[in-house]
Amino acid sequence: MWRLKQTKEKERGAAGVLVAVMMLVLIGAGAMAVDVGQIYAERAQLQNAADAGALSVAQQCHSAGGCSESQALAWAQTLAGPNSNDGATDVASVDLSVPNQVTVVTTTRSGTNAFLSKMFANALNAPPVTVGARATASFFPPGSGTGFPLALSNNCFNLTAASPTGQVQKISYKPGGTCTGPSGTQIPGGWGWLDQSAPCEAETQTGSNEIGSDPGNNPPTECQTILSGWKTTILGGGEVHVVFPVFDDATNQGQNGNFHIIGYATFKIWGWKFGNNGAYEFRNKASDPGMTPSLACPGGNDRCIIGQFVKFETINSTGGTPGTGSDLGTAEIRLIH
Fold first, then answer.
1. Domain end residue (candidates: 90, 111, 140)
2. Which of 26, 119, 157, 189 is the most exposed place for a label (fewest CB within 10 A)?
3. How far apart are CA 19 and CA 104, in angstroms?
4. The model's pTM
């Protein structure tokens, strides 16, 4: 009987040790699971900060016509914290070595108040954790795009690389305005309607391809909704910036006419007269706000668009691809990795 009693006591002691060991294993596994979750969450926040920083630097470098590494670092850091929920983000580096491209690397903020400074694994003497992320953004002239079905002549384009805005001007459909189409052009005027790929939309591309023209003095009827939206925005105190394809040559006539697209330029629209009444005309008379007799597009069959070319950065909006067309002040900014 004595031997049996001793054996049971020894077994109870072994079970206690086993439970204690298992508890340590379970606590360690739980701590690891929580810590890994924190690391993944922090990694996501750092990626948000890197993406925002890269896009911001690309936009501001293009807008300024170039930038230094110290400027880029400051711009990236300004957005790094606000674009991470915990606000604990540092910019480790900014790389401008590739032309028209910027890479931003973010990292966990160091110090006792950093997000990953209070890890459960610290109780197991695990080393400190540093998490990082990187993002690369590029800026380039669009090589193709989809937008409002109107092309402008490069004879009307007056925005130099150093100027953020051009003079306010009237671009007429027929010769006689402030600018006209290229010499010898058989499609008259400084602009022309394009064949539509969808209602009030045309697909265009720079290079050797020529985009068919849509004959007629008036715009497609499907454009009334877009023109009404432009009017509402301007009357509400906003600005309408439209990216237009720019052509350097126009051939043939009517439906057989073609425009050779060389690039894309952004036009800040003041007013227009694409037709008579309704959405087809807006602030095109000398008596309208901001208009002058030289800018006015009077009645009858006169057609014009009034405004100014502006330097502009657009983020993933043209729907096109990078190209080798002329840099006309408009840049497409994209995250590439």
1. 140
2. 26
3. 49
4. 0.73
Last residue of a domain, one of 94, 122, 140: 140
Tokens encoding 100: 């028209």
**What residues make up the domain containing 238?**
144-329
Tokens of 253: 């006539």
**Alpha helical stretches, state H, the chain:** 2-63, 69-80, 224-235
Do 309 and 190 touch, CB atoms closer than 8 A?
no
Domain tally, the chain: 2
The β-bridge relationship of strands 132-140 and 330-335 is antiparallel
- Collapse the DSSP code of 298 into the 3-class scheme (helix H, G, I; strand E, B; otherwise coil) and give the result: coil
The answer on 124 and 161 residing in a single domain is no
Residues 173 and 322 both lie in one domain: yes
CA distance 139 to 336: 10
Give the number of residues written for the chain. 337
Single-letter code of the amino acid located at 32: M
- DSSP annotation string for 33-82: HHHHHHHHHHHHHHHHHHHHHHHHHHHHHHHTT---HHHHHHHHHHHHTT
Express each pLDDT in 271-305 by its tens digit. Answer: 999 888 889 999 999 999 888 888 888 777 788 89
For residue 297, what are its two tokens?
């597009």
CA atoms of 161 and 326, how far apart (whole Å): 11
Instruction: Tell me how far apart the alpha carbons of residues 171 and 173 are, in angstroms, rounded to a whole number.
Output: 7
Which residue is it, tokens 């023109």? Answer: 227
- The pair of three-digit structure tokens given for residue 66, joined into one six-digit string: 């170039």
Q: What is the pLDDT of residues 151-190, one digit of tens each?
A: 888 888 888 767 788 888 888 875 444 464 444 444 555 7
Q: What's at 126, amino acid-wise?
A: A
Alpha carbons 184 and 94: distance in angstroms, whole number? 50
Other residues' Cβ atoms within 10 Å of the Cβ of residue 228: 13
